Amino acid sequence: MKKNLRGLTYAILSISLLTVMAGAAMAPALGAIQQHFAGCSPLTIQLIVSLPALLIIVTTFFFRPLCRLMRTRTLALTGLTLYVAAGAGAFLVDDIALLLAMRALLGISVGMIMPLSTGLLSYFFPPEEQGRLMGLSAAMNQMGGVIATLLAGLLATIEWRYAFLVYLAALPAMVLVAALLPNEQLAAKGSRIRLSTLTRFHPSVTAMLLIMILFFVYPTNFALTARQAGIDPLTTTLVMVWLDVVAFGVGLLFGWLMHKMRRQMKYAAPLFFIAGYGVLAFFPGLTGMIVASTLIGLANGAGVPYVNTIASIKGGRDAAITVMPLISAALYLGQFLSPLIVGPLSAILGGPYKVAMYIGLLFLLQVFLTRRHHALPPAENA
Fold it and tell me: Which of 45, 181, 251, 364 has a CA positioned 20 to 30 A from the CA of residue 133?
């Protein structure tokens, strides 16, 4: 039985490794892509990164009906097949409209598999295991981001289209899912999404939205800050990768941290975000940037698995079809909204990092008001 559970864990975590690749992995290739499609506007090129997020949000709201149509293994394999076809298939495309269509299909595929990457952990494993497993899921997500970004950047040096071959990484996951994931029926006949679902889980959904709004202040502003400070591109890249390494380490240790400091963990993400962006706002040199990247890595590494753990325990075995699609939608909505919210406020409040500090304070208040009572974790405060 333990061997079967271990294999099942590997299959689910292999999905976690892929989900972050949807948009951000292509960022290093955008320069080469823009050079190739020289007649296209910068906004059109940026859609290569941002368009999948919009389709992920839309697809998550259809996740429950998909679960009525397909069982777990069938749904996962369908999503992964579309992931490979749309992701790596862009290698064959030389038209910007077709390229964006492929990116839209990629977003749909991630919308199909993203709720499974966390929801299946709550379905197949008991609550006492979920803190450790959600931490591992977040760690795999961070590792996937590092590997995909580095590989896409290297492949883009050959030619821009080669960057899309990074999505072939889903092939091993397909083998694991086909061999090790049971074909369960998650959604009962006639089940449907209700407004009460959002009402019940609003603390976790709001928390994930705030985490992503806060986190994406970093990748959208850090490189510019580093250039203004006279830091070379290689050093800047290494510092940014260091953040992912820190978040990966926190994910690996998350189960132990929840066991030792369960009551304090709810405050970790907002406090580390406030501290990290405070350092960036007031100490913009290289040393400050390294310290800030460490703090923001700690915030993201603790915040994402914490929200997923609390939400999955609240949702129970039905989490994959109730709260996890909402969490996935909030995650990508936060990524999309972050520059739209932070950009205009920066001119008023003294820069993006100070705006992030204020949002961090709002996040801290939200945590205090919605998670004041914290048992193992509390079902009533998810």
Answer: 364
Locate tokens 């932070």: which residue? 342
What per-residue confidence (pLDDT) applies to 314? 83
Which residue bears the tokens 């492949």? 155
Instruction: Provide the 10 A C-beta neighbour count for residue 127.
Output: 15
Q: How many domains does the chain have?
A: 2
Q: pLDDT band for 379, please (50, 70, 90 cuts).
A: very low
In the structure encoding, which two tokens stand for residue 18, read together? Answer: 């892929």
Query: Is there a single domain that holds both residue 268 and residue 337?
Result: yes
Q: Which residues contact 178 (CB under 8 A, 6 or more apart)?
A: 73, 77
Cβ(219)–Cβ(292) under 8 Å? no
Tokens of 153: 């950047």
Residue 137 is part of which domain span?
1-187
pTM of the model: 0.80
- Token pair, residue 291, equals 């310290």
Give pLDDT tens digits for 80-114.
999 999 999 999 999 999 999 999 999 999 999 98
Cα 46 from Cα 43, distance rounded (Å): 5
Both 180 and 322 in one domain: the answer is: no
pLDDT tens profile 13-34: 999 888 877 766 787 787 788 8
Is the separation of the CB atoms in 90 and 107 below 8 Å?
no
